[in-house]
């Protein structure tokens, strides 16, 4: 078995289990522990796995949902940078509500193993946390949108109404002077319920979303507490957000794209 084939097989084994130990992987692949460690180092640099005490977590791409898979590839470097800054704003012990956006997924992959309470309506995000001993996971039920793998609709909204979290973290399709938008009416209703159940609301969005509207308005800018965006944002937009009372956190993209 060649190196590339072995690494692909290793990644698939970790992906299927979500979490695995080094001795188990070495036994399944019939290779030495040192070989597994070298391959895991390579996969970790790619962002596909994360090593921790006792084993390794899968942190790679989500299940193959066509719409999600396409969006995850767009502005990938910016999403990674935004996710890193957002992760730095989260403290151990926090209670978070994560939606099903591709930027939120990148953030979730950085939170695996941390002592958090995570509530999500996203099947891809929930899958990341199912193998994490450090985090408590609550999955919101309801109608599952097939292209994105998120639960939306009245059952999801009723469940959200019974919960309280410290922070809701939301991805959006567009941002204008009127507020933030998303492209699915049911999704927007559920995201409004998320915001109502949270003490504070953080939006994670790359700079290409600004100046664009979409099908449904989720909320006005003044209803946001924080926004994490990449440093490609126009200075005028930063001033406009700050005037609306939003704390703006800029993510440097060069450090990510150069890796």
Please characterize this protein's 3D structure:
With 259 residues, this protein is α/β, with parallel strands linked by helices. The chain has two domains: 3-58, Arc Repressor Mutant, subunit A, CATH 1.10.10; 66-257, 3-Layer(aba) Sandwich (Rossmann fold). Helices cover 41% and strands 24% of the residues. It has eleven helices and 15 strands. It has a seven-stranded parallel β-sheet with strand order 6-5-4-9-12-14-15, sandwiched between helices. It has a three-stranded antiparallel β-sheet with strand order 1-3-2. It has a three-stranded antiparallel β-sheet with strand order 10-11-13, covered by helices on one side. A hairpin with a 2-residue loop joins β2 (49-52) and β3 (55-58).
Q: What is the strand and helix layout of this fold?
A:
Layout: H1 3-17, E1 19-20, H2 22-29, H3 33-45, E2 49-52, E3 55-58, H4 66-73, H5 76-88, E4 95-98, H6 102-111, E5 117-120, H7 123-129, E6 136-139, E7 143-145, E8 150-152, H8 154-161, E9 165-171, E10 174-176, E11 179-182, H9 185-196, E12 198-204, E13 216-219, E14 226-230, H10 235-243, E15 247-251, H11 254-257
Parallel strand pairs: 4-5, 4-9, 5-6, 9-12, 12-14, 14-15
Antiparallel strand pairs: 1-3, 2-3, 7-8, 10-11, 11-13
Helix pairs in contact: 1-3, 2-3, 5-6, 6-7, 8-9
């Amino acid at each position: 078995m060649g190196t590339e084939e072995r690494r692909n097989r290793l990644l698939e084994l970790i992906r299927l289990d979500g979490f695995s130990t080094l001795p188990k992987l070495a036994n399944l692949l019939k290779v030495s522990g040192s070989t597994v460690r070298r391959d895991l180092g390579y996969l970790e640099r790619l962002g596909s796995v994360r090593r921790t005490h006792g084993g390794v977590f899968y942190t790679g791409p989500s299940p193959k949902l066509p719409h999600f898979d396409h969006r995850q590839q767009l502005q990938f470097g910016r999403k990674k940078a935004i996710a890193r800054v957002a992760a730095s704003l989260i403290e151990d012990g926090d209670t978070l509500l994560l939606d099903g956006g591709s930027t939120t997924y990148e953030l979730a992959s950085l939170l695996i193993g941390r002592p958090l309470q995570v509530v999500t309506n996203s099947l891809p995000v929930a899958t990341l946390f199912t193998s994490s001993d450090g985090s408590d996971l609550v999955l919101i039920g309801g109608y599952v949108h097939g292209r994105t793998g998120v639960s939306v609709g009245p059952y999801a909204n009723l469940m959200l109404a019974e919960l309280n979290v410290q922070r809701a973290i939301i991805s959006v399709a567009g941002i204008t002077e009127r507020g933030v938008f998303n492209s699915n009416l049911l999704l927007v209703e559920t995201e409004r319920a998320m915001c109502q159940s949270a003490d504070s609301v953080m939006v994670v969005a790359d700079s290409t979303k600004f100046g664009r509207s979409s099908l449904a308005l989720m909320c006005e800018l003044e209803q946001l507490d924080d926004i994490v965006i990449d440093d490609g944002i126009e200075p005028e937009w930063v001033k406009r957000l700050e005037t609306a009372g939003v704390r703006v956190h800029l993510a440097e993209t060069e450090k990510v794209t150069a890796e």
